[in-house]
Description:
The chain is flat. It has one domain (2-138). The chain has 3 helices and no strands. It is mainly α. Helix 1 packs antiparallel against helix 2 (64-106) and helix 1 (2-60) runs parallel beside helix 3 (111-138).
Amino acid sequence: xxxxxxxxxxxxxxxxxxxxxxxxxxxxxxxxxxxxxxxxxxxxxxxxxxxxxxxxxxxxxxxxxxxxxxxxxxxxxxxxxxxxxxxxxxxxxxxxxxxxxxxxxxxxxxxxxxxxxxxxxxxxxxxxxxxxxxxxxxxx
Length: 140
């Protein structure tokens, strides 16, 4: 009787330690991911024109007039890049919609509304990220 109680306590302890390990690992991964990947997202959102101009200005000790001229060149270049890739946006959206339709064909009727809600959340996140990235260049 004492042996079974001891075994039960040992098993409970092992399970508790295992669950704590999973919990702490998940929390650690979340915090590390948010810190590391979040910094990369922030860097990309603020990097486009302002960061480049600031770095160049510091490295070359540009005058204020040179900074304005360089900033204008960088912004014009960004517009050209956007214009270059704009025709692909329609094509990319078409490919995305086709893949979503193919995925819907695999799902059960109960899963389809959940899938659509999931896609809606992704689209909202995509729009939010695009708005964040557009703010630095529009504020100038």
